[in-house]
Each structure stands twice: as C-alpha cells, then as structure tokens.
Amino acid sequence: MAAADIPREKKVMYNFLGSSGLRVSNICLGCMTFGRNVTLGSPSQQDEDSSHQIMDRFVQWGGNFFDTADIYGPHFSEQIVGRWLERRERDNFVVATKCNFPVGVGRNRNSVGLSRRHMTASITGSLQRLHTNYVDIYQTHAWDAATNIEETLRTFDDLVRAEKVRYVGLCNVNGWQLQKIVDTTDRLGLNPVVSLQQQYSLVCRESELEPFQVCKANGIGVLPWSPLKGGLLTGKVKRGVKPSEGRLGYVANNISPHGRSFEVFPHYNNFTNKDFDVLETAQAIAEQKDKSVAQVAIRWLLQKDVTSSVIIGATSCAQLDDNMGAANGWSLSQSEMNNLDQVSSVAQFYPYSSINQANVHRNNPMARDYVVRSKV
C-alpha cells in the first residue's frame, strides 16, 4: 500500500500531550526493535534499512511521534533514529528518549540512576546519537530509590531551561511515587511533568487504580507501552500452549545474554485463564467488525480518556500497517467498550473496594476536575 493508498480518514489523529500544548499523533512508534539489542535479547530486531523503512511508513500514516531510549541496543536505536532524523525536517517530529539504566562498556559507579551527574551525561550522549540539539520529551525510565527526587526534578528543570529538553516525562512509577513527583514539582515551582509512559493493555490495567488517577487530577497524559502484551493480544497465543513465536516465544524459550532466564520479565509470562477470556472477547469483537484482534486492543486504549498516544512496536511495514489500522476511521461502540472493560476488570481489593463503595453516590465532576482546571 503506497502513501497515496492510505485514505485521509484512516490516518492518525492528533492529541495534545496531557495538559501541554504539544500535539502528538495518537499512535507513537516505539523504536526498541531497531538495531541489535544485546541488553534485552533479540527477537526480530531490525537492521538500519528496515528500521528506516518502518519509520518512513509511519510518517506516511501521518505519525509524528517516536519513542526510544539510551538502553535500547544499547545506543543502537538512538543512532538509527538519529541518522533518519538528520535527513528530515527536525521540527516536523516529536522525539522522546529516556535515561536511568547503566548503558554500554566502560561505565562506572555513577553511570546509572537519576542523579544530576548521570542525567546530564546521558542527555549529552542521547543528543549526539539522535543528531539533534534537543529532545521533545525526556523521560525517567524508572524510579531511582538512591537519588533524592528534588535532585532529579531540578536537573530536569535545568535541562528545559538550557533548551536541551522541551518537556519532562516519566515511565514506570507507582501511585505514591507519581504523587510525590507532582507535589515536589509544585512546591519548587519547576516545569511540570506532562506524560507518564506505563504498561497498559486489556490484560494489564492495574495502573488505573492509582497512577492514572493522579494523571487525571494533574493533566498528565498517559502513553501506554506493550499495548498487545508482547503479542498475546494479536491472537497468535493459544490457551494452555507455550508460546513459540515472536517476543513471547523468545522470552518463554531462551536465556538472556546475561545468563538469566527471561522469567525475570514476568509481564511477558504466566498468563491466566482470565487473560485468555479477555483475548477471546476481543477476538469476537474483531470478527464482528472485520478488524484484527490487535486493532481492537489498540482501539480500546485510544478510547480511554487518559490516553494521549499509544506506543506500538513493529518489525515490518506489514505489521505496522495492521496496527495503524486502529488509529482512525472507526470506533468501538459503548457496548463493546463495556464488554471489554468488564471481562478485563481489575479485582476490587481493599482499600479500593471500600473507597469505591463509600463513593458510589458521591460523583461530583466539578470537585474531581478542579485541580486540573486550576493549573491550566
């Protein structure tokens, strides 16, 4: 399918990223599969030519948003994105990258975490590899329990003021961590967090309990990663059968380059009967709508009010085309959303069950949304 063959009404839509004025395509191209990945294993990693073809195809769909990280490769993904970016009009694209984890050879005791030293060194390296003088969104890749959060947030603020970073984002935090970051940012008068990148899918909804409530109250846009749960929500994995293909097959059947079983990545293992009940519900809806299961799973995320953009990965243009088919031109009905919500719901355990019961008749949108409006 050539670019001219993609109807305008099927191309991506654009959303504001949280309460910021930055507009991003509602689907973001995740670049973890670009280049040899010696850190996370190599299921279907793409060479530079293939990666650039996927990026070109994504732009044909109208996409403008790319997500990478220094640890992807490590470094290879940023390098591949950078060599593509230097031949394009930089301002047409939104580029996000991350820091925290130790990367590369010759690293020392301070080459990890969210200290001022490591963050400033990391952004310098990322900018060089990306062939740009700024990144649109700089993200913590995870919480760092060894660094005072004030140090991290002041460093982010300095990087924004130095025009090396445009916006601050986070990844992989729990509710109290996110609230502490928001409160500390407010107290110090620093540039706010605009996005949270979090694992979120039909079979991973736990972040709805707390982190996403903080997001709603503070204008933070959610960027779901692993929307297909490593391939489970493509329909290729069967109940009671050990995966043999794709990332799930790789995780289930291999040892990491560091000699550890990939069982250390539990979010890609140990699927339950409930997970397959969710999958079968999505499959039934997909058949009724003449869509793929992946498209239904991504569309469900796109219709969630916390979502600014869904991060997808692709190992071929054909796979990309299928996923991009969720971006526009159709929607899930309220009944279909309700069915998916119900079958995939998170168990209401204490204290959430008590809190929700106590507030059954206390729904006041004016009170709930006051914090957001007061900050805009």
UniProtKB/TrEMBL annotation:
Keyword annotations of the record = Oxidoreductase
Q: Name one GO cellular component term.
A: cytosol
Q: Name one GO molecular function term.
A: oxidoreductase activity
User: One Pfam annotation, family name?
Assistant: Aldo_ket_red
Task: Show the taxonomic lineage.
Answer: Eukaryota, Metazoa, Spiralia, Lophotrochozoa, Mollusca
Q: Where is the signal peptide?
A: none
Domain called NADP-dependent oxidoreductase: residue spans: 26-343
Kindly indicate whether the keyword GTP-binding belongs to this entry.
no
Protein name stated in the entry: 4-deoxy-L-erythro-5-hexoseulose uronic acid reductase
Family of this protein: Belongs to the aldo/keto reductase family. Aldo/keto reductase 2 subfamily.
